[in-house]
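Notes from the 1:1 (GR / supervisor)

We went over the backlog. Supervisor wanted to see one worked example end to end before approving the batch request, so GR pasted a single chain during the call. The sequence is below; no edits were made to it. Supervisor asked that the structure be written out right there so they could see what the output format looks like.
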Amino acid sequence: MVPVTSGSGLGVGLRCVVACSPSSLRGACVVWSFVYLALGRVLELIMLCCQSAEAKEIEILVLRHEPLADAAADAVRRWADAGADIVVL
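Structure output shown during the call:
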């Protein structure tokens, strides 16, 4: 059994398990893994094309906010690791 996971998008967390014997069907496993990942990417592209303009704008805003939130969390961790008192107003 070879678990195959996709890296991002709609397929995150989804797994496709392909049953193959280690020696005889290794090439078939690679082919099916590629087909699975390619199909996932095609479906992501179709979903992206079908989104409304408002949904795309919201996604852009969320993606812009993520680095700021990560930087703030890192700053809080650095302060906590340094033993400083953090006051939340």
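Supervisor's comment: The chain has two domains: 1-50, 51-82.
Batch request approved.
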